[in-house]
Structure formats: C-alpha cells, structure tokens
Specification:
Layout: H1 5-12, E1 16-19, E2 24-27, E3 32-35, H2 39-53, E4 62-67, E5 76-82, E6 90-97, H3 103-120, E7 124-129, E8 132-137, H4 180-195, H5 202-221, H6 240-257, H7 270-280, H8 290-304, H9 316-326, E9 334-336, H10 343-359, H11 366-379, E10 381-385, H12 388-400, E11 408-410, H13 417-423, E12 434-437, E13 444-446, E14 464-466, H14 467-478, E15 485-491, H15 493-496, H16 501-510, E16 511-518, E17 533-540, H17 543-581, H18 584-611, H19 617-626, H20 643-670, H21 674-710, E18 716-719, E19 723-725, E20 731-735, H22 736-749, H23 751-754
Helix pairs in contact: 1-2, 4-5, 4-7, 4-8, 5-6, 5-12, 6-7, 9-10, 9-22, 10-11, 17-21, 18-19, 18-20
Length: about 750
Amino acid sequence: MNQTDFLQIGEQKGYIKFLNDGKRIHYVAPDKNYRFTDPEEKVRAKFYVELIEHYQYPPNRIDLEVTVPRRTPSDLADIVVFRDDDKKDPFIVVECKKDGISDAEFNQAIEQVFGNCNSLGGYFAVVVAGNTRRPFDVKNHEPGERSQNIIADPPVRYGKVQEWRYLKGVPQSELSVIERGELIRVLEKCHDTLWQGGKFAPTQAFDELAKILFIKIRDEKKSRRKGKPYDFQIKTHEKPESVANRISSLYQEAKTLDPEVFTENIEIDDNLLFSVVNHLQGISLSQTDLDVKGVAFERFLGNFFKGEIGQFFTPRNVVEFMVDMVKPDHEERILDPACGSGGFLLHAMDYIRKQASEFYDEETESRDHFLYWHDFAEKRLFGIEVNDSIARVAKMNMIIHDDGHSNVISNDALVGFDILYNQHSEFEKDQFDIILTNPPFGAVIKQSELPYLRDYELGKNGTSQKTEILFLERCFDFLKWKTGKLAIILPDGILTNSSLQYVRDYIERHFKILAVVSLPQIAFSHYGAGVKTSILFLQKFSEQEFERYQDAIDQIESKNKTIYTPKIEELENERQTIIAKGSPAQVDVTENYRQQFISILDNIDALNQKLEKVPTKKVQDLSAFFFPEIESTPTTEFELFDPQTARAELKAQTSDLNTLEKEYRAAFRNAADPEWESKIKAAYKEKIDAVKEEWTDKNTEDIREWVRKNANHPIFMAIAERIGYDATGRKDPINDLNAICKEYRKFTENPDFFG
C-alpha cells in the first residue's frame, strides 16, 4: 500500500477532514483542528490514520496534543493511544517530526518521547519522522534503556509485539511503494546519516550508501515464501551489532553472486548502519516505478555532486535529446566511454523500454515486453568511468533501474585496448553501434605522465593533448565501420579555433558529419561549468571510404614531400657548413693557420707523389678544408731524394702536421662562441620550421580541396537558444531541442530540400 493512501483513506472513512482548501485539518474523533501546512502535521495525520487502519485502534481512544504531567506546561504528546474509552490509561505515546530531520534531531525526539511516555505511564513509545520510525517497549525496561527495548513495530490492537514488521506478501506488512519526493528525502536522510556532517566526503558517503542500497534491492528480490520476513529490517529487541552482522552477511552473499559491482567491505560502524536500515527498511525500491526512481535518484545525485564533480552529470534535457536524435534499437550495442553517473545509458534503456510498448502490451504480454528492454539493458549497454566512486554511482543507478550494471567498468577509457579487454572482454575495437558521450573538458594528458599519448594520431606529435580531443579518436576506434554513430558534446573551440583546424580535419577524414547543434552558454551552468558547447552527430566511414581517404591523403602528402624535402635538406646543409667553419673568431684562427697548413700539406703531397703513396684520410680532410679551391703546385725540391730519405722526410712532415693540427685545434676551441652557434641554429630552425609549416599547410589545403570535390554532403545545423531550463536549473517552458529533433527527422528524409 502506498503511504500516501492513508490520508485518502482517512478522509474517505471520515477520520479526518480538510478545511480551508486543505490548509487546515480536522481530526473528527478528538474534535481538534490544526494547521495542515505544517510539515509535522502531515506526518501526524498519516500516522494517526495508520494507527486506526493498520494498527486497529479505535478512534475514540486516540487523542492529540495530550498534556504531560510533571513536565513543563508546554510539553504535549503529539499522539496518545489509550487502553480505555475514558482516555485515562495511556498505551502508546507518539512523537511526530517532519520528514528529513537530522539524526541528532531524531535522537532528541527519542528523549522527548521517553520523557512523555514515562510521565504518562505509557507502555510503548514511537518516534515518527516521515518514513523513518523507531518504536520502543518502555514499560518493561529501565527508564534509561534505548537499545535493548527497540521493537520491530508497535503492537496491533493491544496485542503481542511481533518479532518482524515487514513480511513478504502480507498486505498490512508489505514494503511500501513511495512517490518521488519521499524517495528523494529517504536518500538524503541516508546520505546525511553517513556523511556525519563532513566526517566523510560526499563521494565516500555515497559509496557506503550505494553498498547498502545494493543489499536492500537484492534482499527485496530474494526468493522467500509469502509471510516470511525480509532480512533488511530491524527486528524486536535487536541491537545495532546484530543488524550489522546480518546486513554484512547479505552483502558478502551478494558480492559473491555479483562481483562486478562491489569489492570492498562495508566501512561504517554498526550504529550508522542501524540508522540507515531504519530509514530504508519500510520502502520497496524494486517495486517503485522506474520513472519515479530515475528522477529521484537523479535529483538526489544532483544535490550532492555539483561543482567539481558536476562534470559527471549531463542535464536530462540534453541527454534525452541526444538519445532521441540517434534513435537506438534494442539490437544495437551502446557505449558511453565517459559515462559518469550513467545518464546516457539509462535514457537509452528508457527509450528502448518505451519502444517495447510499441510492440508488446505491458499488461497482456508482460514477459515479452520485459525481455525486449531488459535483455537490451543487460547485454547491450556499456559504460566506462575513470572515477571509481562515480563508476559505482553509475552501477547503482543501473541496479535501481533494473540491471545492466555489470557492463560498467571503472578505468581510463583512453588506455590501451588490451587493458580494457582484460577487464571486460566486450570492450574491443569496431564493436559498438552507438556512442553517446559528454567527455571531460579541459583536462590535459601529458606524455610524461601517460605514455599512451603517443599511440594516438591526435596526440603523437606533441607532449600533451586535451582529453576531449583524444576521446574523439577513441570513439572512432570503438565504433563499427560504416554504421557506427557518435553523439558527442564538445567545447565550441574545437569547431572554431584556428589552432585546432587539425582536429576538424581529423573529423572530416574519419566521419560523415550528420548534424551540429549549438547549445546555449547556460547549458552546464547549473553544474558549475560555463563552457560554450555544441553537440556533434557523426557516422564512422566504411573501411572502403576510409581507405579511399587515406589513399588520397597519402598521394597528396607524397607529392608535397618531393617538393619540400629538398628545401629542408638544403637548409640543413647550409647550417652544418656554417657551423663547421665556426664563429667569426674561429674563422680568423683558421685564416691565421691556413698558410702554415698549406706549406706542410704541399710538402706531404710532393713526398707522397715521390713515393707513389695515397694520402692519409687526415691529409685529405685537412687539404679539403684549408685550400679546397687551390690547385696544388708541384714541388721539385724532393725529386733528388732517394726513397729512404723521402720516407724519413714524409715522417718528419707528418709529425709537423700533427703538431700544427693540435695547436690549431686548441686555438680553434678557445675562439668558440656558443652564443653565436645558438643563434645560427635558432635562425635555421626558424627557416626549417617555416618550410615545414608551409608543407603542412599545403597538405591541409590540398586535402581539404580533395574533400570538397569528393566527399561533399548536406549537414544539418541548428542553434538551440532555450533548452527547457535556465542557468540556475529552474524549468523553462520553452525547449528548442524538441523542435530541432523534429526538423532533423525531416532533414534525414529529404536533405537536398534543406540544402
């Protein structure tokens, strides 16, 4: 039964009446009126009717705002159930608080209800704060006891206290299906309990909550006979330690059955776990409507993960638009390589769930309807998230929406495919039909930190690259040839900055551009990001188209290589020649020594001729250096030497040459000018870089010209000025994205008309 039904039942059966357009409430039996706009009054009204309907206490034995003896005049018990018609013998004393109070406020309410119950002489006490309740057996325990006397539920019609409150299939004891607002409040209460005012980081608190929700859903789905108790609850006289042990056992069992979701143990103390179980035990997560769970979970996440972590959440309107634009089919494999909390995957699943209703009646063909979308969720939805905590959010999101979580992995989507494959064998190249993604913006991958940068075409020519640019290439790798489609959110700089022309060229060489939709500046403002963005809808070329592009590119680059390589080589030779000659001071040294070298080298040349010997390499090198353009003059003074004398003279001249060379080398080194050499190198580097840049520009220009002539096709382009919410996240009645999607449908049917 829905908890909200108690107000309707109470009004229908005449237990309560609403006055002044619902601003006030009249409790008929006690004949008392109160302001119904007070949040605490809503809680009291529901529990008042529940005491009559579920716990079967006569309305004439229930009173409100009962004065408490021996307490201050202002102390009043919110609800008292009496054992007699004269209302002299109090049985149950209730303290009501608004939904969503803190644990400290709840504990304060416990002390308040104990004081009231002891003063009134009641048997049982209950604190009610929305879905969070805690009943106590007061009469049979010491006044200061607060744990040994916790009971599962107040007794029904003065009867015996039951061991368990929540039983499968028993109408009055079954778990409740709740509405969205209540579910959000329950999640927030759980998170606040775990967060402890800042002792845990929000993501740490969520990690623990995710584990507990995981156990809760598993327990609800566990096979048990009708009338058997659920394990995820607090039974009568059960201590926090006992509850924690049972929950931990459930968790270990669930981890074994589903090892992909969690690996760590529960890391909170028994008392905190006890409080969270108290918040959650009475509601049914598995039976609550998927849309209700989806929106509630999304709102809850949005409240706690803004700012820095807001990058993990893409606004709902944008996600829905992108999914609608790509029109996924239940046979297609869908990936988000930067999945964050799983928004794209969930909306794709929801799209297929609605698609199932087009083929199967949800009531009469429920099995076929369920399998149509559930098989898709289980086998065809895939996600990668680099942040382990946020990956857990995505997995939990998928579990809450009914499976699919096992295909979400925590890793950097940019690492090598072998690493991804080893983690999950479905993550291979060329295997996905659709990629929907909003990659992280602005982060920089550095070669020194992540060596995989060199493996990317868009990263190998530098020492760093932005993540969103690398994600473009990684998405291309993941998609199937020819049919694979990509919907990706990118900063406008990629589409407009002249320095990023090479990225646009990469897109044109690898994808058919289907559509470009510009988003307003405020699209991500609510999440703490002000980057102007657009959505690109792309389709991967077929292998034949891609090879045709590459062949054309290779031919263009080869042609230009024959033009520009000689220019670069000529400049490099010039630079080497100038540096070899040395600085101006070194040139002077060379000139000062030139005549001495010429004299000795002439003598050695004449002696070599006399002896018919080939000059040594050193002699050849020095001759080429000191008189490259001077014809050697025949020397006659050694003609009369006999061979033995000539050999001795050659040895003497060679020794003189070696001595002169050492002297010259030392003088040359001493005259070196590093600053001059650096300037020469810099000047020629600038000239060579200019040629290389001209070469690159020529390649780009020729390739773009080829693209214009050979690969021209109509592209759908649109600007969304209003997208259903404003900069603060408040709803805007106008959403241009809906109209854009309709126009795109028309465009795909007749693109030439639009052109």
